[in-house]
């Protein structure tokens, strides 16, 4: 999750540097752990870093093409599930393993279908809705009155 937050923070501010300490503070995480995540994102070509005063991280990926799965796969092996010892030899254990595998496949397909750009647009719509709740109410009244 921290990798997703980091990519989204950087991608939400195109062309600007985002400091690691800012991200760590915002999400209440260890700056040391975040530095490891950001290094891996840099190796993946998703962020560029610059050191020194005013330094930080800048998104360098393509937000329209980069999916949540692309980021998640750098850090986690989704779906690499080992059956519980002994469970694979029972009908119930096999059934549960199959169901969990199907859930994993659905989750992976969902993560592959959502781009960073899509998620940023969703966040922006949420912000707009929070800033103008009266606008949504008046639109609803106008539709029901017409």
Approximately how much helix is present in the residues?
Answer: 55-70%
Q: What is the helix tally? A: 7
Output the CATH topology: Arc Repressor Mutant, subunit A
Largest sheet: 2 strands, antiparallel
Question: What is the fourth-level CATH superfamily?
Answer: Winged helix-like DNA-binding domain superfamily/Winged helix DNA-binding domain
The rough form would be described as globular
Radius of gyration, Cα only, in angstroms? 21 Å
Concise summary:
61% of the residues lie in helices and 5% in strands.
Describe what you observe in this structure.
The protein has helices at residues 2-11, 20-27, 31-43, 68-73, 91-113, 116-131, 133-145; strands spanning 47-50, 56-59. It has 146 residues and is mainly alpha-helical. The protein has one domain (2-133): Arc Repressor Mutant, subunit A (Orthogonal Bundle). It has a two-stranded antiparallel sheet. Helix 2 (20-27) crosses helix 3 (31-43). It is globular and about 60 Å long. The termini are far apart.
């Amino acid at each position: 999750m921290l990798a997703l937050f980091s990519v989204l923070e950087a991608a939400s501010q195109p062309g600007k540097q985002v400091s690691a300490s800012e991200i760590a503070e915002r999400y209440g995480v260890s700056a040391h752990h975040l530095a490891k995540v950001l290094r891996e994102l840099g190796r993946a070509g998703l962020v560029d870093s610059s050191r020194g005063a005013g330094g930080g991280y800048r998104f360098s990926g393509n937000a329209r093409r980069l999916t949540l799965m692309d980021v998640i796969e750098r850090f986690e092996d989704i779906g690499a599930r080992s059956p519980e010892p002994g469970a694979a030899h029972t009908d119930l254990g096999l059934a549960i393993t199959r169901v969990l595998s199907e859930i994993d496949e659905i989750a992976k397909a969902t993560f592959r279908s959502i781009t960073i750009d899509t998620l940023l647009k969703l966040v922006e719509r949420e912000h707009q809705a929070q800033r103008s709740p009266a606008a949504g109410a008046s639109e609803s009244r106008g539709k029901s009155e017409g």
